Predict the structure.
Amino acid sequence: MPSARVERKPKMLKFILKRLALGVLVILGVVIVTFIMTRVVPSNPAAQWVGPRATPEQIQAAKRELGLDQPLYIQLGIYIKNLFTGNLGKSLKTHQPVIEELKNYLPATIELVLLSTVIAALIGLPLGVISAKKKDRWLDHFSRFFSVGAVSLPTFWVGLFLQLIFYRWLGVLPLGGELSTNIKLFYQVPHVTGFLLLDSLITGNMVIFKDALLHFILPGITVALYPIGLVARMTRSALLEILGEDYIRAARSYGLPESTVLWSYALKNSLGPTITVLTLSIGYTLTNTFLIEAIFSWPGIGSYIATSILSLDYPAIMGVTIFAALAYVVLNLIADIIIALDPRVRL
Amino acid sequence: MKQIKQVMVLIAGLLALAVSVTACGPGASPTPTGTGSPTPSTTSMPQVAVVALLSIPVTDWDPAVEFSNGVMILHNVYETLLRYEPLEDTFTPVLATDYTHSDDGLTWTFHIRQGVKFHDGTELNSEAVKFSIERTIKIGKGAAFIWDPVDKIETPDKLTVVFKLKYPAPMDLIVSSAYAAFIVSPAAAQSNPDDWFTQGHEAGTGPYKLESQKMGEEVILTKFDDYWKGWQGKHFDKIYYKKVPENASRRQMLEKGDADWTMELTSEDIEALKANPNIAIEVNSSFENLLGFFNTEKEPLNNKLVRQALSYAFPYEDVVKYAMGGYAEQAKGPVPKGLWGHGDDLFQYNYDLEKAKDLLAQAGYPDGGLKLLATYNSGDETEKKVCELYKSELAKLNIELEIRGMPWETQWELAKATNPDDRQDIFFMYWWPDVTTPYTYLFNLYHSQPEIVFNFNYINDPELDKLMDDANLQAGIDRAKAAQMFVEAQKKIVDEAYGLFVYDKNYVRTFNKSLKGYKDNPSYPHVIFFYDCYRE
C-alpha cells in the first residue's frame, strides 16, 4: 500500500521532533535537579577550590571568583546561560574547564562502549539464532548457560580474572591502559578524532593500531559480556516466538530452505526488539564501564566521575550528569525510531 | 545451514585475528612493550622509569599554587634555592650556592648559581628569583603564606638576592619548602596568559621537562639537555607517571617489572611482596602524623581530667599494630620524630584503663556514662580502624563513642560550627609540614585563631601562644635555642592533653630493586628526585 508509506513520512518527522523536544525538557530538568542537589549537599566549594590548607581570606576570595556569593537562582541562571555556549564551569579539583576534561576522557570510554556493543551484536546474534534453532539441544544449553553467566557474573570479577589469566599467568596480553609505555613514549600517537583505534587506522599507523587493539581485548571482552548475554537471550526468545507464526509455517510449506526461513524471514522480524534492547543497554554498559575502566586503568571518564563525586566537585558532577542524560535521551530516541520504523507500529 | 557456517567462519576468523594480533604484539613491535623491566643492554636505548600511582596527584600545574602531593612531580621540573635534609639538619645548595643572615635574623642574603638555564632557554638570575617569589605572594593561593615574613626582596646584583624581613624567620627553611618555593622563568610567565601554568605548561630549571600530560591520567617527563648539573653518569631519560587505580593492578605491575615504583599498597600486599627478590621494600619515617583533637569548649572535654583519662584509654600499641600494620610509631607530642623541635623527652601517655577510670572518677564521672562523637575523613580505612579500636576501649569505661566518617569538607564545616556544642568531640586528622618547622604544627593546630581553620581543640591560651610565637621568632636567629622553646610549648600541650598524639606514620616504599639512587626525604613527601636515580 504505497499511500500508507507516503503518509508515514511526515508523521515520522513529527514524531522525532516531538521526541527531541521532550528530550530537551528532560535535560533541562536534569540540570536543575542536579544543580540544586549538588548545592544542598553540605559542602564548601570555595574551600575546595583553594585546597585543604587555605586561609579564611583565600576562601573568601575564591567565593567571589566562583560567583558563590550570589543567590542560588542567579547561580543557576548563569549556569544555564553558560551551558548554551558549551561552558560547563571549571573543576574545583583540577581548575580545568570541565568541557575540556570531558573531551579528554570521553573518547576512550565511547570507543570502548561502542566497539564492545558491536562485538556483542556480532557474537550475541548468531548465538541466539543457533540457540533458537537447536532448541533444547546441547548447543542451546551451552548458549543459555553462557548468556545467563554473561549477564549475571559481576564484571569487575571477570575483569580481574581475565587479567590474572592473560597477564599474570600467560603473559600474552597487557594488564591495562590504552597503549604500552614504550609506544606512548617513543611513537607519535595520532590524534584526529580522539578514538585511538580509529585514529591509528586512518593514519595507517599499524604498530600503534596493533598495540591499541591488544590493549582493547580484555576490557573489550569484559564490557561486551553483558550485552552478549542480553542479545543472545533476546534473539532466542524473539525467534522462538516468530518461528511459531503462521507465515513461517507457510514459508516452510512452500519448501523454502530452512536457512532462508530462519535468517531472512524470521530473524529480520525478530531484530526489532533485540536492537532496541541493545541500544538501551548501551546506557547500562556506559555505567558498567566505569568500574571496568578502573580495573584496566582505561583512560576514560569512569574514574573522573568517581573522584568528582567523592570530592564533591560539583561542576564536574554536573558535566558528567548532563552528558549521561544526553546519552540516554539520544539512545532512547534511536530506540524509539527503530521501533517506529517497523510498519506494524502505529505512530 | 550455510549461513550458520558462514557465521561460524566469521567468528573463527575474528578469533584468529585476535590471536594473531596477540602473537605479533609485544615481540614484533620495534620496541619492547613491557617497560620497567630491564631494557636491553645497548646504551643507546633510552632509560625509562615508570611510576604507578593511585591517581595523578597534581591538582594545579602552577608551581605557585600547587599545595598537594603533585609536588612529587613538580620537584623534578622546578627547583628551589636550597634543599633541606631534615634528618641531618643540613641544606644542599641547589639554585643558590650559599647564603648568610644577619644576627637579628632580619636580613638574609642568597647567592644565585651562575649558568643555570630555564627550560625556555632564558637564564636564571636574581631578578627571576625575586619575580617568582613575588608572583607566588601576589597570587596568594596554596602555600603562599610561607612568605609572610618577607617585607621586601632586593637584587643588588645579577646573582644576589636579599630578603628583608618583617620579623625574624628561618629563610633557609622557607626557601627550601616543598611547596610554593619554586623558581620559574619570568619570560615565560610574563609572555603567557595568567592560567598558562595551570593549563599544564611549565618553565622551570629542573632536570626534567614536562613532555606531555593528560590531566589525571598520566604525566611524561623527558630530560632537559641543558640541565646545569649535566648528564654525565647514569640517569633516566624519561619518567612516566601513570594512573593505575586498582591496588591489585599496581602490585602486579610492580611484580612483573612493568612499574618501577608504586605506593599506597595495602599492608597485606606489602607482606606478600616481601617474598619477591626483585622488589625493594623500604620503611622510612615521615613527618606525617595522626592527631586527635579534643573539643575543649564543650562538656565534658573542657575538663582536663577527662581529656587525660581519654588519653590513657587510647590503645596506642594496638592501633600501630592493627590499623597501621606496624608501619608507624606512637607519637610523642604533636611534632613528629626526626623533625627539629621534636621533644624526645616529652611525656607520653600509655594505654592504662585503670588510670583512666581513676581520672574519670576524679572528674566526677565514676561510672562513665558519656556520649562522644568522633569524626574522621571518610574513605580513609586506617582512620576508621583507629576509631573502631578506640570505641571498643571506651566502651569498657562505659563511654559511648559514635564514629562518623565524613568527606573532608563536611567534617571541616561541622568543626567550624558557631556553637561549640554543635561540633564534634574528637576530630581525627593527619598533619604534615609545609615549611619544615615545628611552628607549622603548633601554630596551625594549637594557636588561638580569630576564625577556626585547623585549631580543632579550640584552645585560646595567650601563654601558650606566646611560647610558640617566641620560639618561631627565635628560629630565624638561633635554631637550637628555638627547638628548646618549641619543646617547652609542647610540654604544656601534652600536659593539658589537648588531644591525642596517635602515631607518626612510616612511609613504606615499594620499588623495583633495579631502581638505584632513591632516597626518601621526609621534608618532600613522596618526591622521587629522579636525577639522582638510575637503573642497574
Chain B has 15 helices and 19 strands.
